[in-house]
# Entry
Amino acid sequence: MQKSATYPPPPVVLCFSGHDPSGGAGIQADIETLHRLGCHACTVITALTVQDSTNVRAVLPQSAQRLVEQAEAVMADMPIAAVKIGLLGSAELAAAVAGLVRRLGPVPLVLDPVLAAGGGTELAGEELIHRIRSDLLPFTTVLTPNSPEARRLAGDTALDRCAAILLDAGCRHVLITGTHEDDDAPVTNRLYGSGGTASWRWPRLPHSYHGSGCTLASALAGHLALGRSVQQAAFGAQAFTWNALVAGRALGRGQHLPARGCSAQAPATGAHSAESGFSGPA
# Structure
């Protein structure tokens, strides 16, 4: 009788995200991305949403007590290699998640500060933003805001100053994505940390995409769970996301949806990397 092959268990990533019924963003983005990277996603729903590929119509936050119970059950059962946080839905839920990650200890944590939907709907009030700054940034390994989110979180306009303010607030690295900047230029994403900065330029794609930020943050958490350095994880996550967007499809009336099942793990053709002074442990 032939002996069956044995495989090492995949690293477990604990995801706190909202549910998107269109399948473009949120928990489904986390599951698809992490599975593609060879990780196992444990998912805790922060909020149900009413949305499609055009916009978010309603956010329905879940009970903080039930959220804590779900996460505690997983944390007691499996070794958590990384945490990914997306849509939170309320300040109460942000505080509950902060209490959970505090108990987890020194586990890599990627925080995607989902402050507004692609269609323009506001998803975070000032109380929630305050909780993100005060309760979650001190535990964050990599914060992944787009440029409008970075400006709103930091209260400044210059992105370099925004990064410095957010690092001073406690997070160890900030990856600011440049999709919302100059429409005629390549997209430049910049990683900031105590060791310096690194930047990457990517060809600007012709469409807008629903779930690109979720995909990037999930891929970054997956790469960290697999043992990569922050700089390696940041580049790998961008490559994964860019490939998923290139293969994306317009399934509805709004934004294109990323095709994460088609995304290659290898760097995308045409990506350019420029590094500046990034040194020391990631």
